Amino acid sequence: MDLIVGGGVVGLSVAWRLGRSGAKVTVIDPAPASGASHAAAGMLAPVSEVSYTEEPLLRLGLAGLSRWPAFAAELEADSGLALDYRTQGTLDLAFGGDDMAALEELAAFMDKLGLPVRRLTGRECRRLEPMLAPSVRGGVLAEGDAWVDPRRVTAALLAALERAGVPLVRRRVTELVRDGSAVVGVRLAPPSPGASTGLPGPSAGSPGDVLLGERVVLAAGAWSGELTGLPVRPVKGQIMRLRSPSPLLGRCVRGMVHGSPIYLVPRGDGELVVGATQEELGFDTSVTAGGLYELLRDARELVPGVTELQVADIVAGLRPCTPDNLPLIGPYGPGLALATGHHRAGVLLAPLTTALLHGEEGELAALCSPQRFQTAGQGSI
Amino acid sequence: MDLIVGGGVVGLSVAWRLGRSGAKVTVIDPAPASGASHAAAGMLAPVSEVSYTEEPLLRLGLAGLSRWPAFAAELEADSGLALDYRTQGTLDLAFGGDDMAALEELAAFMDKLGLPVRRLTGRECRRLEPMLAPSVRGGVLAEGDAWVDPRRVTAALLAALERAGVPLVRRRVTELVRDGSAVVGVRLAPPSPGASTGLPGPSAGSPGDVLLGERVVLAAGAWSGELTGLPVRPVKGQIMRLRSPSPLLGRCVRGMVHGSPIYLVPRGDGELVVGATQEELGFDTSVTAGGLYELLRDARELVPGVTELQVADIVAGLRPCTPDNLPLIGPYGPGLALATGHHRAGVLLAPLTTALLHGEEGELAALCSPQRFQTAGQGSI
After folding, report:
1. ipTM, interface predicted TM-score of the complex
2. Which string of DSSP letters, residue by residue, matches B11-48?
């Protein structure tokens, strides 16, 4: 039995993939699909997401993107649910001369990588997306980029797991249980009063008890550091969902406004996602007046028509961030594997993460190996 | 039996006052205390609320304010609930030279009325309220102004009515029922499925039925026009509640920012209310990106520290507005009285409204008489 700690997009994807390959798995999460995956916009845009100095992250992102078509098709078939997976690309926009120079750098970089890219004048941008502000001076269309609705993805994963009979334990994990240096299970916090424990049948044990397994896969996002001592820290993102009677945009648009990046992601059902702040405030998920103000101010600069839209949802999530911005994926001592630290790329890298844990893509796996942060005091391989 | 149509701050106040004077009353509202009263900030600030050309409204407001201390004390005693009624005044702020001139006009006008007023420099304003922006150039403190938490007021009224055994019928009124020219009752919409009808005992009748009474008091806010043909229209206000670990302000502050009025109302529990937009959009209560943006932008100009506060609540309400901005209070044909059209002053005027319906304050009652809009085709006195 593999115990998957964490029911976000990464943990659920890992559980789904393991389950499909015949392994016995259990997912443990007090509130599945409610953390960073619930907040995420779902852009699958590896190139415009990273700076050109972060080449390892770019390679991971491109590998992640290439796995999405098959992942989406399989998951839709297995769950019977649509993911709103779309492939019309990302439009990066420039307002001033500095922005234009940065965009040209981006385009040249994509050329070098052999990725499909189109340089556009302001007028061409507005022909593509008529709701863009008149002040948009030019843009770069990353035609290979895609996006997906992360809430539909986690709902589909939960449905597929339920169909497959994978148990879901709605409890918080307080610590990893070890036998010598080997991880042999997890300790569960007492269930909250009145909550169904979701423990699987007679092997369940009593409240506060221990669940034993052959392997623990830690996919606990921003909370992964607390359970392992690894340097995973929360980076807060506030994000807003607007509702539009008819779609304002046909594709994702991004830009720098007042020095901060802003993006708008349209859904098939008229939802428009506006994100996101990046704040280092520890485990704080409050929605603040200042965060909201910045999102609204910057979104208006890109697409003035957003002011007419209804505010449907405002949430904050915590991205799990590592010191080198690369995820932690792979074995981390006997009985323990990690699938965490995905920072802004949890949705993009979820399909790749399952492959890496399966031992595929050896070269990329080396980039993500948790061993790079292993200190003397912690368990060895 | 008096039938009070509408369970906002006005309808509940009327019911409470009538009940205390020994009358038999029933309140009818599908969702009491959820409309404009739920959105309202609760400023009791008659002078700074009106332009100097609206003297009748000013006289009403001052009369309303003068009744609040006794109303608050009685309601707190009768309900056992605190209203967060506070009397530290309103601080009107100026940023530029034009604002300063307008403020001096306001102060001179208050002098003329014999109202307590203090002219303050920017520095004096910040001494009073240290969180104000450095760009505040001066202010006027209306020392007689007060404020109250409207949600506590309606909760207290509902509690007092329940204690007094006043029935509350949670149904929508679709029309007034007439016998000749006299109003003799109201027709109720069928109850929503699964809802408790709240109808009082055996006299209840079947769904869609009629409730009969000696008098109908219409206090249906923005919906009053639909039931009477009177010119009452909805004016939408979006308003935001922030949460502060410690209070940012000691009193209400107001100002003109980018040509639109903004106010901040502090509560004893750390809540800070930021309001409000004024939009003529019919019966639309959506919270929009543009409305939110304006509130946040303008609040930051007055009190930059609001950016740190948590967003607790955002709602939109519909103010019931008449062509001359004065309310409609008093008899309107046999069997019918009105208590509606209070626009921005429902909370301020609620105590006065009960007095006017009681036949007190004859001179003010004439200002509010619904007869001023009576046309040939409608019922006569």
Report:
1. 0.86
2. HHHHHHHHHHTT--EEEE-SSTT-SHHHH---EE-HHH
